[in-house]
Amino acid sequence: MSSLEDHLNWLNLHNEETIDPERPIIDPHHHFWPGDLHYLLDDLRLDTESGHNIKKTVFIECSQEYLEEGDQDFAPVGETIFVKKICDAAKEESQRTQIEGIVGHVNLLIGAEKTKAVLKSHLKEGGALFKGIRHAGGWDHHYELSNSHHNPPKNLYSDETFLESLNELSNMNLSFEAWQYHHQVNQVKKIAETLPNLKIVLNHFSGPIGIGPYATKKDEIFEVWKTDILTLSKYENVYAKLGGMAMPINGYEFHKQASPTTSDQLIKEQEHYYHFLIKSFGAERCMFESNFPVDKQSISYNVLWNAFKKMADRYNSEEKDQMFYKTAQSFYKL
Question: For a designed S-S bond to 56, which of 66, 68, 100, 297 qualifies (C-beta 3.0 to 4.6 A apart)?
Fold first, then answer.
């Protein structure tokens, strides 16, 4: 039996009855991986059709299927080509979940003119499905921790070349996904105040780290994070995704348990982050996200969305509609 099969069997050790199964949902954050990790259209559908009413999804870049020939600044366009084919295949069964957005990657340190050219290539290949880019900025000085997958320099989001390139997204009516660590929230603030017309969405609560030197500092990190998040929320061009904290780097060690995470356990450990973010940004700028299959290391898709629905129970009907559907629909123009 493969390690993937073992993991799927482990996830099946805990199942829950689906809460509010008719509620329409847009999942604005998932990935595709070929190869050993193997998370493609059939895998996504097994998850999105496991109980909740997932109408649409948005693919977020994860450095897959880059072009190997030609100018390597254009290599990330290969990922858009790869995902566009999956989107087209999904359309053959229109009654099932559709991937209606693609967020790709451009190395924004190549300068504004080259960035513009690469973005045009993404748009040529992805068409209306192409919504924007992510250039991860997660950097930490502790040797035990790895920087995010684009291997960014320390202050990527403050770099003048980076900001000039980001302005090309604003000019082309595309959005930016900000993905960094908890101590870098103010770098996102720099982007927001420099480019007020750029639509920005904060990924994964700005990545609170809970391993290595941060493992014993969860309460301290949360207090500093609250101050920084409240400041960032004042910028109306910044939105926030609610999810992506079941990764090993967040330090909850869900993936090491004898049985997978329950919705109640996730809520007990993390709801203070969710409710503070919603309070700060307002439901109209918040959207629940799965971050699958990354968070699948710890929790099943059905149980994760049950947790979201339980946490959303205190909010009114319109606020729920915003966080589960309308905010993502508006932000990505779906």
Answer: 100
pTM (whole model) above 0.85: yes
DSSP 39: B
Residue 226 CB: number of other CB atoms within 10 A?
16
> Cβ(183)–Cβ(160) under 8 Å?
no
| Domain 25-331, CATH among 3.30.1490.20, 3.20.20.140, 3.40.718.10, 3.90.1010.10 | 3.20.20.140
The Cα–Cα gap between 19 and 44 comes to 20
Please report which residue ranges of 127-240 form alpha helices under DSSP H: 160-171, 185-194, 218-232
User: What token pair was written down for 240?
Assistant: 């926030």
Q: Which residues of 54-90 are buried (b: 16+ CB within 10 A; e: fewer)?
A: bbbbbbbbbebbebeeeeebbbbbbbbbbbbebbeeb
pLDDT in tens, 28-41: 999 999 987 789 99
d(CA 89, CA 87): 5
